[in-house]
Amino acid sequence: MTSIDYELQSMAANAIVHAASMAQASWQEAAYCYTQPHVVYRPKLFKDGNQWCCLLGENIQEGVCAFGDTPAKACAAFDLAWEKP
């Protein structure tokens, strides 16, 4: 085997290892998303005035509730509210 062949095989192997590592990171990130409270508990998400509301429970007083300018911001606020006593 020539030096050039060995270098090409080494570069190909490194590229495959890198691609596998990136795929693993993507899977871990996707799996983490499924552990978020707004995903696990599936609260109601609805427009309330000029903001979005993310509510788990019968009403704001008894349930866990959060608001945001977008659905994503309301869900992120809900995840933070979930951790509060």
Structure explained in plain terms:
The protein is of the alpha+beta class and 85 residues long. The protein folds into two domains: 1-35; 38-85. The protein is 56% helix and 19% strand. A three-stranded antiparallel β-sheet has the order 1-2-3, with helices on one face. Strand 1 (44-48) and strand 2 form a beta hairpin.
Features:
3 helices; three-stranded antiparallel beta sheet; 2 domains; about 80 residues
Task: Briefly say what this structure is.
The protein is an alpha+beta fold and 85 residues long.
Architecture blueprint of SSEs:
Layout: H1 3-33, H2 37-40, E1 44-48, E2 51-56, E3 64-68, H3 71-83
Spatially, the strands of the biggest sheet line up as: 1-2-3
Q: What can be said about the biggest beta sheet?
A: 3 strands, antiparallel
Mean pLDDT: 94
Helix content: 55-70%
Q: What is the SS-derived class? A: alpha+beta
- What share of residues are in beta strands? 15-25%
Q: What distance separates the N and C termini?
A: 66 Å
In angstroms, what is the radius of gyration? Answer: 23 Å
As for the number of domains, it is 2
Question: What general form does the structure show?
Answer: rod-shaped
Oligomeric status = single chain
* Helix count, DSSP H or I runs of 4 or more residues: 3
Strand element count:
3
